[in-house]
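Objective 1b. Sequence-to-structure analysis of Integrase core domain-containing protein.
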Amino acid sequence: MSGRGNCYDNSLVETLFKTIKSELIWPVTWQSRKQVENAIARYIGGFYKPFKRH
């Protein structure tokens, strides 16, 4: 992060949001917002393991 006003600071987050939208949100017709929230939570939970081996 180089600081205030740099357009490249947010590029990783924007890429993540675009990936979630293109792979998960846009291809499906959702019935409710709760379904979308649960699907996003499962998608992110599957990507990042909640438990680390020690």
